[in-house]
Amino acid sequence: MMKTFLIAAATLSLATPAIAEPVTVFGSSDAPQARVVYGDLNLSDKAGLNTLKQRVRGAAKDMCLVHYQATLSERAARQQCYSTARADGYAQADALHDRAAQGFAYAVDAAFVVAASNR
């Protein structure tokens, strides 16, 4: 199925503070995961939410779609990994956006983990 993932930092082309990289990918073949930083974003507006979702998509791609040339079944598994990770990240991003819209403030180094399999 999927090969073991090595610890790798993946940065997006977005400007972020020097305190943390926006995405760090880690995990194993059973459950690849990525840490996505959002403390530098204003999640009470759509622009901040869209930036966070862009980071989620990048993290899911880096976790699941690396070395995409593979057998058909491996490609299907990698696509499922990507879809699951993206859906997990989007759900968390939407929940954070809802809380921010209600006035909740996040720490500068706030982050969440996107999982490529059900928890």
* Structural class by SSE content: alpha+beta
The oligomeric state of the chains shown is: single chain
Spatial arrangement of strands, main beta sheet: 1-2-3-4
Overall tally of domains: 1
Q: What's the total count of β strands?
A: 4
Distance between the termini: 19 Å
Percent range of helical residues: 40-55%
Strand content: 5-15%
Instruction: Describe the global form.
Output: elongated
Mean pLDDT reading: 76
Q: How many whole angstroms does the radius of gyration measure?
A: 14 Å
Q: What are the low-pLDDT stretches, counting only 5+ consecutive residues below 50?
A: 1-20
What does this structure look like?
- The chain is of the alpha+beta class.
- The chain contains 2 helices and 4 strands.
- Strands 1-2-3-4 form a 4-stranded antiparallel β-sheet.
- The longest helix is centred in the last third of the chain and has 30 residues, at about 70-100.
- The protein is elongated.
